[in-house]
Amino acid sequence: MPNLSLGLSTGLTTLATADHALHAARRDDAPPGSAPGDRRAAPADGASAHARARHARSSFLAAGLHTGVLSGEYAKKFVVAFRPDTPAGTAVADKTKLSTDPATPEGEAWLRGEFDKIRANVTDEASKPSYDTLERVISGNFKPIRERTTNEVYWEHILLRYVGNVPLDIERNYSEKLKLSLIGSAERILHGHDGIAESARILNELLATTQYTIVDTIMRDTGKESGWVTERWAYLDGNEKHNQVLDGIDSFLIKEGRIDTKMINYTVEPATPPASFYTALGVSHPAHNPGVD
């Protein structure tokens, strides 16, 4: 994917422009007392933020494909995630893929299934994701940023990544003063929103699908507006890049409703058979949704 880095950088910039145009139209009609940052994520008329934004996203992606700015593989992932109704004759259509857009029945069913797997794997009751967070991600009716608990911030971040909405995840869940360290297959120190966007680009380049397994998660609130999270995760792709991660571990420090400090460790290696993979993790083999990208 030779154009991936340029594509993501250009894509995120254009996404911001498109989203600001959408959000500007909502701002004047937002309910009195709503936080400025949240008017952009929760339309006053109750329509899904995902559904309202996906047409703008697919439009800029189509333009990027046409001009060669965005790589076809990367753009296809976002169009499939946000615009499942793309006509079959377009360059990015791929009907063999399931949609992960929760604004569609197919994507909603997929996300609910993944959510159930996550809840089953997280053994600490206080750290399990809440159904309220799931419903807010599906509907686009998000809570004000600083009114969220550590649990809500973290699981909103995870679910938005599951459905491929990296721009909204960065906007709502990451501090502009973020300090981020990558360890393992990608080693570097990154900062701010540009840093987490670069981290997402690297992850997307190395790990091409959504076939993640959250092995376990522990989180605690440590004060009125702060908390921490540690997550063990793994990844197995036996179809596209034929690779896996067994040592995934992320740690977060959350302040004032956003992720302020983050450490990510993962080592990418050749894929092993599923039975060997799950045995190495010490978890049971889940029922996967094959072909989801």
Question: Which key features would you list for this structure?
Answer:
disordered N terminus; Nuclear Transport Factor 2, Chain: A; 293 residues; alpha+beta
Number of domains as seen in the coordinates: 1
Low-confidence stretches: 1-96, 288-293
Number of helices: 10
Rg over CA atoms, rounded to whole Å, is: 18 Å
DSSP helix fraction: 40-55%
Shape: globular
CATH hierarchy: architecture:
Roll
Biggest sheet features: 7 strands, mixed
CATH level 1 name:
Alpha Beta
Average pLDDT, to the nearest integer?
A: 74
Question: Would you tell me the structural class of the helices and strands?
Answer: alpha+beta
Annotated CATH topology? Nuclear Transport Factor 2, Chain: A
CA(first)-CA(last) distance: 16 Å
Give the SSE string.
HHHHHHHHEEHEEEEEH
E-strand count: 7
Task: Please indicate the percent range of residues in DSSP E strands (runs of 2 or more).
Answer: 15-25%
Task: Describe this entry's structure for a reader.
The protein has 293 residues and is α+β, with helices and mostly antiparallel strands. It has one domain: Nuclear Transport Factor 2, Chain: A. The protein is built from 10 helices and 7 strands. It has helices at 4-27, 36-39, 49-67, 72-82, 105-121, 131-139, 150-162, 166-173, 192-206, 274-281, and strands spanning 174-184, 188-191, 212-223, 226-237, 243-255, 258-266, 268-270. Helix 1 (4-27) crosses helix 3 (49-67), helix 1 (4-27) crosses helix 9 and helix 7 packs antiparallel against helix 8. The protein is globular, with a radius of gyration of 18 Å. The model is unreliable at 1-96 and 288-293 (pLDDT under 50).
